Amino acid sequence: MRPAIFPLLPDPGCLLLLLVSWLFSPARSEITSLDSGNIDDILNNADVALVNFYADWCRFSQMLHPIFEEASNVIKEEYPDKNQVVFARVDCDQHSDIAQRYRISKYPTLKLFRNGMMMKREYRGQRSVTAIADYIRQQKSNPIREVQDLEEISSLDRSRRNIVGYFEQKDSDNYRAFERVANILHDDCVFLSAFGAISKAERFSGDNIIYKPPGENAPDMVYLGSLTNFDLVYAWTQDKCVPLVREITFENGEELTEEGLPFLILFHMKDDLESLEKFQQEVARQLIGEKGTINFLHADCDKFRHPLLHIQKTPADCPVIAIDSFRHMYVFPDFSDLSIPGKLKQFVLDLHSGKLHREFHHGPDPTDVAPGQPIQDLASSPPESSFQKLAPSEHRYTLLREKDEL
């Protein structure tokens, strides 16, 4: 009689370990790799896309990879449609043309796209699975608050910029264009909408969009273009939502600094709205042509005491106007000079020409010295930039280059 042969069974403990690993190990996320051949098609068809611009040699990029993948896993469980949310990446060494196209100046950079349009605010939050997932959930939330009674409009917070759309129905091309605009600009304005019978009193000439600017007595502005033309609606709304003179805060300082443009800043007390209004008027009157060469900003004197100390000022001296070139700070002679025609513009032109820099180091230019007066080389040391410290940290990014500023 032949002996019975029993197959060897695996150790029960090993089986249990394999089962637990299979149940609790998430599937590796498939991050979409972008190149010049697929980037436009993928981004244009994505409601929301978060793109990681990285370099393999960058240690910060290496640290982010597993976090980015796990955040993608979490979000794809909640938004399974592949076009709802896309997590993608660009190897900037392999695709330098794409890096240049989106002005990548540091690794890793996380940029948000909506239907192919890159948002001006990149992701700067914590680099954790929870924070990135929460950020995407926030981006997927409805940016438009639907009002149920027009009385809600009369009680709006008039310290904010409000855009209100009145539509006959939600399922319309007019509203879809409005919704696209709100998705892009919801960080800059509050968007509201009313439909049907609720909005009827405001639709005497058809669907319309109203801008309600800050200030209790500020007059409303009506959009007069085509409601179905996204480009026109977007351009009009952006003009209303993004002011010429923006407030700089500790929250947006890094973003503004990274734009690379010098700052023309009004330091004023928070409740001194009169000085702010004068500054805004003169910037619009004298410097509209300089938009794109310098950032026009205002700052709370109390919050930004440190930059004031750099130029030997205190909140008691406010309002104060200064330029921060990211190398030095230069002070406008006197706030009361603001009303002198062309004075503020010349201050900015003197920055661009290098005159402010030269005069700080060598005294007045010879052309500014009265005839017969001896020319003196008055070496001085202008205050160093204070806002440059708000630039992206080298402990968080690999910075690609230094910017030369006057």
From TrEMBL:
Record-linked SUPFAM superfamilies: Thioredoxin-like (SSF52833)
Descriptive protein name: ERP44 protein
Classification via CDD domains: PDI_a_ERp44, PDI_b'_ERp44, PDI_b_ERp44
A Gene Ontology molecular function term of the record: protein disulfide isomerase activity
Keywords (A to Z) from UniProt: Signal
The Thioredoxin domain, residue ranges: 18-141
Gene3D superfamilies noted in UniProt: Glutaredoxin
Annotated spans, Disordered: 362-392
Any one GO cellular component localisation term in the record: endoplasmic reticulum-Golgi intermediate compartment
Biological-process GO terms, alphabetical: protein folding
Tagged with keyword Protein biosynthesis: no
Keyword Ribonucleoprotein set for record: no
Organism of origin: Oxyruncus cristatus (sharpbill)
Signal peptide: 1-29
Record's compositionally biased regions (Polar residues): 378-388
InterPro entries: ERP44 (IPR052643), ERp44_PDI_b_1 (IPR041870), ERp44_PDI_b_2 (IPR041862), Thioredoxin-like_sf (IPR036249), Thioredoxin_domain (IPR013766)
